[in-house]
Each structure stands twice: as C-alpha cells, then as structure tokens.
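Long-time lurker. I teach an intro course on protein structure, and each term I like to show students one example going from raw sequence to a predicted 3D structure in token notation. This year I'd like something fresh instead of my usual example. Would anyone be willing to generate the tokens for the chain below so I can use it in lecture? Attribution to the forum is fine with me.
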Amino acid sequence: MDVKFYDDIPRDGVSLFQTNLVHVQENKKSAHKNASQSDGECVVNSGGGVGCFGSYGDVSKVKIEKQRWRRIVISVKNVQEGKGKGEMKTWIDAKSCASIKQEALVVEGRFAIEPDGLYLFSSQKQTMMPGGIAIRSVRVESSCATDVEVKENRARDKVISMFNEEREAEVDQQRRGLALASVFPKPRPIWFAPALIATFGDAFIEGTGFEASSCLAWSYTVLDFALQGAFKDQAHLLEGLDAQAKQGLSDVVHIVNQSHVVFKQMLRLLKNPTESQLMSFLRKTRKLLQAIGLGETLLLPALIEEHELLIIVERTSERQFRFVIVQTDPFTGLRHHAVSPATNPPKIMYRTCMVLNGVSKQNALDDVFWMAVFNLAVHVHKGDLDRFYDILLPFLTDKPLESSLVEAEEYRLNAKASAAEIAKRCGDYRSPQRSKTAYVRCVLEALHYMLRARGLTQEDTKLVHLALRTQFVSLIQNDLSFVSPDDNGQRVCEMACRQLSYTTVKLTEQMLASPSPTPEEGEAVPRAKFVEGALEHVRLLVEDVRAKLAACVDEVVALPPRLDLTLDPKKIGDNNPTTNPQAVQFKDTPAWDVDENTPDPGQVMFLRKYIPIDMMQIPQKVTTRDEAVLAIRMCDKLCTLMDNQTHCVKNRHFLIANLIQYVFTQVVPVPKPRNKEDPESKVAYIKGRAERRKRRAAAKKAEASKRRLTRKPKAKDWTVHVDPASGRTFYNNKITKKSQWKKPAILEDYGWTQIRDTQSGDLVRFFLPFSLLFSFSSFFCVVLLWVGVVWMCVRYFFYLMSVQREKSPGSGAASPPAPPAAEVRYIRERKKQFEKRLRRIFFFFLHSQRKLQYQRSK
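-- Reply from a regular --
Happy to contribute to a lecture. Here you go:
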C-alpha cells in the first residue's frame, strides 16, 4: 500500500489492517474456544517501524514519517498447525524492515485473509485509528513476496508514475514560490484571493460571481498577511507618518495579528456547526475576553443572517469596556447606524463603526450575550439582524439603541475634544460598500477606526491604505514570476494596477493641496520629496507588473490579404492595368518598400524531459491470468511512452509493432484454434473410453447398493434358516448380510405363508391371497384361451359350409349373387383383429407362467 500520514503517529501506533473483527482461539488443554479481538495484524509504532509481536525493524535505516509518501509491503507465509513457525516480512520503500517468525502464523488462523473481507486501518483500540491518512493504492496478492519481487514492483510502478511525480514536484516548486505559501498549505496565486478582488474592485464586481465569494475568516487571514508585509516592505511609503502615527500603526498591526486566532476558531465553528463545537468556541472566546488588559483591543467576528460584521472590544477601565459594531452593507446592518447626507454631498455617508461607550464589565463578559450572538451564526432565522440591534445591543448598554446614537451625535457636536478623541468615541462617517464585499470592507473599516482612535489623521489613514494596496500589487508581481494568469487573472491584475495608480495620484494631490505641518510639529520627510518618491515607486511597480502581463498575453495577428498571381493566358503581354491588373501589381513598387519574407516558425515548443523506457519490465513468460493482464498493461504503458516521445525515440512505429507482437506471441500463451482437433487428444479419448464405461458402471452399481441399503426393509429381503447345532430358527437379511434370532416385525403381518424349497431346503415366504389370486387368474386365462379357439373354429366351419352351399348346383334356380368387395374386406379385418387378440392372450399367459416360476425359484 502507498500511504501518507498527515500527523504524527500516536503513542499506541496505527493499525494497518485486520483480517477479522473477531478471532476464535481454541485452548489445547481445556478444548474451550474463546472469542477475542486484536489490535491489528500489522502495526506502525510511534517510532515509524512496521511489524507486530514487538518487532518493528531497524528504524535507523528506514521508517514512516509524516507528510511523506511511503510504500509499505507486508508478506505473510502461513504454515500448517504443528509444522513449524510461519513468517511475516515487512518492507518500507523496498527496504527490508522487520522479519518475524511465530507459531501463530498458521493456515486458517488469525493472519489468514478471508475471501469476503479485509479491514484496513481497523483496530479494537480507538487510539490506533487516528485518521489523517492518505491512500494512493492498495494491492493484495495471493503469493508471498521476496526482496527481488518487492524491488521489481516498486521499479515498475516508479517508471509508470515518474512523469506524474516530476509534474507534482514542479507544481510544488511553483507553490513554494507563491506569496501565500507561508499562509496556506496549497496556495493559489494572489489574483484568485477574494480579499484582493474586493479591496480593489468593490465598485466593479457588483452583480458578478465575486460577490459574497468568500467568508470573513479567510479574507481576514489574507489581509493580516498583507498588512504585516506592508508594515515591513512598504516602509518608504510610510515615511510620511510621524513617530506617533507609526507607533499607533504598529499597535494596530499587533492587534490584527493577535486576533487571528479567534477567526480560525470561527472558521472551525462554521465548518462544523454543532452544539459541542459552539460550546468549545464560547469557552475559548471567554478566556480571550477575560485576558484583555487595560487599553487593549480584541477583534471578534460575527455572522448574522449570513451577513458579516465585526465587533471591536476595547477595555477602557477596570470596570468598563467599549464595544464597536462594524457593518458596511447599507441594505442590512447600516439601517440601524447613524446616517448623514450633509457630510460629503452628494454622497450619503454612514457611521460604519457604531461606538457603544460605558459597557459594564458584567455585561461585556456575560455568557448569555455571547452565546446568543454566536448562536445566530449556527442557527439562521429571518429577522435575526433586527433582534441583534434591538435586543442584544441594548442589553449591553442598559438603554435603548437610539439613546446611544443620540449621545454619540451630541458629543460630536458639543465636545471640544480633539478629532482623534471624537473619532474614538463616535466614529467617522464613511461611504458604504457598493457590492456584497462585507467580508473585506468590515476589516478595512475596523482598521480605519483603530488607526483614527490612536491619533492618525484622515490623510495618515489613507496613506496606510495606500501601503496595503501597494503590498497587494507587490504580491501580484511576485506570483507572476511563477504562474501565468488566465484571462480573468489578467483582468484582475490590470484592475489592481489601475486602481493603485488612481489612488496614489489622488492621495498625492490631496497631500500637496493640504497645508504643510509647521516645523514645531515635526515632519519625517519633506512633503514634496515624499510625494515624488511615492509616485516614482508606484510607477515602477505598475510598469513591471504590466510588462509581465504583456508577456503572458497571446497576440492574435491577422493573416495578410490573399496574393493573386494567376494570369489569364489570353492576356499575356498585356501590361494595361485596366485590362490585366495582375501583371502590373508590383511594377511601380520600389525595391526598398517591399517587405522581406521572414519565415515564422510559430510558437516555441519546449521538449519534455525524457521518461525512461525499460523493455525489461516485460516478463519472459506468464503462467497465470493476473500475470498476463499485468504484462499486457505494461506493454500498453511502454507503447504510450514511445508514441509520446517522438523527440527521443526513433522508428517508434516499428518498435511498438514488434513489442506488441512479442507480447502476444511469446509472453502470453497463444490459444489453440477453435475448430482444430488435436489427433493425440482424440486417440487418448478413444483409449480411455473403456475405462470411463467401467467407472460409470461402478458408479451406477455403488448408487444402486446405496439405495438398497438406505431404503425401507421389505419382507422379501429376509430368509429363514435353521441352525443345525441348536435347531433354532434364525433370520438373515440378504441386503445387509445380517442375521438375528428374533423374528422381524415385518414378517408378523397377516397373509404370509412359508414353503420349504425341495432343492435347497430353505423356507420361502409368499403372500397367500395374492398367490391364490395369481393362480386363479392363470387358470381363467387358459380356459378363456381354449374357449376362444373353439369358438373361432366353429365360426370358421360354418363359414366354409355356407360358401360350399352357394357353389353347389341347385334345382335349377339361379344362384345368389357374390358378396360385395366391401363385405369381404370387413370380414378379413375382423379376422385379423381376432388373431391379434388371441396372440395377446397367449403371450400374457406365457408371461404369467414364467413370472410364477421365477417367484417360486426365489
């Protein structure tokens, strides 16, 4: 079997197979039979060895490792009970592992495979069935394997799958170079990530398949990875931030990274929405909430009516928390948030981040509230979003939701605090989403709120968003070096480049138009110099990405117009362009204006790597059906390799024909012709005819004897004899050849009599009524026979007399006419019928006499 273990092997090991779930063992001393269960007939121990009975081989040479494909071969040689020890051998990747000899390896024992079933990875212990095992192939053979056969089978399968393994290695090499390789085990190019598409294309993907194409947890993972990279790799764009703003950005990056564990747990809950999983998620979330320190923040995901939203929990004091509800959909959750058409006309702006201040510690850590919130993600009902805003949120603040909104608006209008404090306690008015991209926009809005709450201005926050977008395009630049995008991928990459360029130019124009900070405030880099450097950096990045995209585009070149050089034979010599334009079409063309005919060899084709073709894989001779099938399959594989490697294999057609001819004439036995008889077999058949007749006769005789012995005994089977010594009468059964003194019960029946045979002296029994009836019937038949004979003679005499009378002359009277021919025929037929009846009666009489003589002789 070819297997791969994804996780570490447990302490008890992993069972590879069981032949039966229950085994019956007999105690030789007490002769009692006991039913028992086994942990497995072959086990992989925690060290990576394969075997049983405490012997698992030398793991220093070869062993089972996780995340690696291994071929395990197990060969069991069972012996007859009491004739020595059986043997089990194991191999890992054709290398000998363990050799075990035990008396338990017997025929029809525990290690013998039943024809009706084989249980893979089965055991009586649950710990020995951990799961997490990938299976590529399993093969069961009816013979014991040797070291040579194991190596031959591995080499044969290796040659067949070599191309696939090299292809998989190339794919793995490409995956290791992708940007998301450090995040996902099987990463895809970044332009397939919904987080990137929603970040750049919220205004363009409405009504397409990219809407609601991902969940909040996956997008959060990609955005967290991009934000971490932007903070490290896009430092030249973040030079426009002062020291305090950079410190605030660093804190926000740390908060996003620390909250990642909650989104992973949420993803597991959505994958298995059960009550036990929900309780486990609540216990872990409660620990994280209780661990929030003073001034620290935690992001929590929520899913209500399949709409994503974020909950930002911040601890403001020992007894109070601040909750921020982040929602971006104007048709669902934003209907409960504050709205303002006057902030940025003609746009309608919403408070995407609803801030709830002064939440008590008791309400913030209440288990009922969090169970109700996350239960909405498991059980979906219509109207859950309204219940969340109208019931659950007022439970936190101990007042209606409208009161919280009014207090936040009054604080914004009347407070004399700084803009950062107002944004922290009230939130900014922001544009809602245009498409169903809440799985990304909620994270971006939460990022904006946390940056503003830590003192960053609107301009600084937009600069951080620009660095994040630039990091996404840098990831595209990296992945284009390994994978070529398809048409959709090219459009996504082009859209990202356009949006990045537009955002950069727009932001730099706003920075140049805004008043420069005073020298007392401090500026890390002069604004004009920073703007120039940012524009140059983005321009180089976009040009590089577009150059790589241009190399992936398939150019379609139209064919040149058809060149007609046919001449009319009737107009040869006519150089008039009006009557014969073909003859003068190149007459006035200068030689330097004529394009050179440069041959186009077409698209470049790379030759594939040569896959070895080993003809020695074909066996010399096959003796069984399975070997013939394997030989034909190997012939097909080798022919396929020769036919698909024309750049390396010459005269492939001849080689294929010769290989097929050799396999079907030399390797596989050629069947005999269907209608051709073998003279030798015919002679042997004739010679054995007498022997077959004797066997059939003996079989019939044995069957008849068996029927006589098994049938119910009859009275005629018994004979009566007199013992000459004692004079007593004893009875002998002619069928069973047994004698007894006691008279059989069947001879006690009424109507039987005995007659002593005069020749042998034996007593013969017969049934008196039937014998008398037989005698009377015989006498009656004889009398009837003679009466019939006399009657026929008399009738024939009178017939002759009548005929004579008619022929003699009379007294002169005319003689009567002769009888008609029909009457003559009738008389003759009646005569024949009478003779036939008479003959039957005579033969019946003879048969009766012979039967009577036979009974008397018996």
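Some talking points for your students: The longest strand covers residues 69-77. Residues 519-524, 767-774, 810-815 have pLDDT under 50 and may be disordered.
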